Structures
1.
Amino acid sequence: MTSSEADESNRHPHGPTPLPSLPDKGRGESPSRAAQAQTKASPKLDLGEASHRRKNPLTGEWTLVSPHRMRRPWQGKREAVAAAPSLLHDPNCYLCPRNVRANGARNPDYPHTFVFDNDFGALHPDATPERIEDGLLVAEGESGLCRVLCFSPRHDLALAQMEVADVERVVDAWVEETITLGSREGVASVQIFENRGEIMGCSNSHPHGQIWATRHLPNELEKETRSQTQYLLERGRVLLLDYLEQEIARGERIVFSNAHFVVLMPFWAVWPFETMILPRRRIGGFDELFPDEKPALASALSELTKRYDRLFDVSFPYSMGFHQKPAGGAVHAEWQMHAHFYPPLLRSATVKKFMVGFEMLGSPQRDLTPEAAAARLREA
Ligand SMILES: [Zn+2]
Ligand SMILES: [Zn+2]
């Protein structure tokens, strides 16, 4: 792990295709050896300097990377930095213990985590499954359940400031919700996520996340299931385990790791400081975690959010969430659970990345390379 922006030019894996000089994906040899061979064979495309695009094997989509644009001066929008909450208990917060919510229910005096059905959920369990198809106009009823999970009774904390033992209680709640919601009739997916920060549209600073159970696989889960299934069928291997092996061999995008999890910036990252948390062994979902993996996951979450906060010296905003195998009890040997962190900040606490123009109409685009961003997060 000695990479820096300066030396990132000469050691890059299989670059964007098509490149005539690149050998095939190294079938039959270990990813690290294949990667070394490719590095030698691809002197032309400098991934630290030249504009190029990178493929996301989980979705099949491409990200445009323009490292040379890092030299341009910033004249875009600057955001205000939101003040961190100072109250341990906010009488006006609908998530704090003992407070009354908008629907009249009173929160219990919970000591750790607290889960409840969202009073204004986007989905209802009783929605009709009826499908309407009129030529190209297709719609169908979508049932589901939206739950809210308070990470802590303390209004002023975030994952980054919580004790690791308390973050582990959050992990325990995710396990429990995955099992309970996932075993309900008519639930295909349990999506766990957190929106953090005003800049992400999060209206309440009380540390909390959400869990949505849906009758159908949401778009991202559908894409990732298809890609992982195809990879397993073609190679008899798990896509994200092969990917992790390649990343560990190279090291340049690894942020940190512990005994059970690796945190890295994906090769195809869209957001400037986007990361993934990947398990070292094959784990399809929260219900498959071993007891010693829960504190390790809590520790990875704690360290990652601390690093984010230190990066720009601000309570770092993000959308994060876990992708896991579809619900319903099937094994899903293709699936490797993982977390995505999508933070919107670009180059300081006040400069946000906007997904506009070419990004809305073409592909996402970034200037800072994932290798350079990973180095900064490693040093934070
Ligand atoms: Zn609160
Ligand atoms: Zn994913």
2.
Amino acid sequence: MVYIHAHPMRIIPVCFFCGFCFLPLPAQRSVPVRVQASRIMEHLSALSQYGKNPEGGVSRVAYTDADLQGREYAMQLMRDAGLEVSTDAAANIIGFRQGSDPSLKPLLVGSHIDSVPHGGNYDGDVGSLSAIEVAETLAEQHIALRHPFEVVIFENEEGGTVGSHAMSAGLEDKLLNSVSASGKTVRDGIRFLGGDPDKLHQGQRQPGSIAVYLELHIEQGGILEQEKVDIGVVEGIVGILHSDVTITGFANHAGTTPMPQRHDALLSAARFIERVNQIVTEVPGRQVGTVGWIKVHPGAYNVIPGVVTLGLELRDLDRGKILEMYNRLRSESDQIGRMNGTQFSFTDPIIVEPALTSSDMQKLIGSVAKDLGFTTKTMPSGAGHDAQEIARIGPSGMIFVPSINGISHAPKEFSRPDDIERGANVLLQTVLRFDAGR
Ligand SMILES: [Zn+2]
């Protein structure tokens, strides 16, 4: 039997002898094509050996030997899946497969395999190995896609989505010269992985140059598991605002200064932190706000704190909402300061813009998941992903699978094989349905 491509996505078996007549063969494909979950789990377990840590997780930090070895393993899997493997100038790994219509833009599927120090075996790995599994399934089932197809494993995602940023926007010298968690600069790290930081423009892609980017990822939160939902349809990756807040009071003797005469900067900081929590939770929505660090000066038992600096972070999918919360906190800080004669000042906020996934992709992923019999929930991603960078050059879509107990960036990170299988099948069917233009 040979397969011919009679219609996009419909593969029709024809007679082996003449290669043309359809009559003698009853074997029309009736069951939708599926990934082999056992193979994904086998590959996850093999990949977890590179950089494995004693706690049962992995420390496969970008630009280390473990990263290099893990990448070699992934490249071999790609070759076994019939992909043509190369690395771009930023050292992103690209596995390419021809499409039947070369006039179409490429369909990209990917994630990353680097980890944080003392990380787990699922963040990035699930999406990368499932993307390879999609390629392997297509090859095994002799399915031709119309679009050129690329499996991309982005380098150094955990160090700030470096590889995907390079592909979609290039890298500035400041970032290239910064020292990564491996101890190497990003520039040296890219060289170490076989890239060429002097030729990054060669790997950079222009807006409108891809048909779509799809990424499967673990949720890294506990919502899907708690609500017993199979698949998260990601509506976007939240924007983040950072601002350093300095509160100036007056440092004085903690034994001799009566309570009403104090200008205690730490007391104002405490009141401010409480307000951050109240303001963020007062309005409906999934926004979050955190004071994640604090420095107290001079910092002694017997001195009333004179100066406090703290780090304010706000996240939401809606930039306007982030700014609204920030402005409200700024104006209320004046009132808080007046209560005990302290002054608040804020550094200009640094904002990482929210990145929305394509609404067409949300609909497609949602309907694919429902057709496969899975429950879905539309949700934002509170963590950053390569998809937010690639959203600059084309429509992107993200699929989440549950993280048990919401644990991530830790050795106890875990997603159940059944959940991974569901996610990988949604990824595969989304690729097929997108390619068929349905
Ligand atoms: Zn990740």
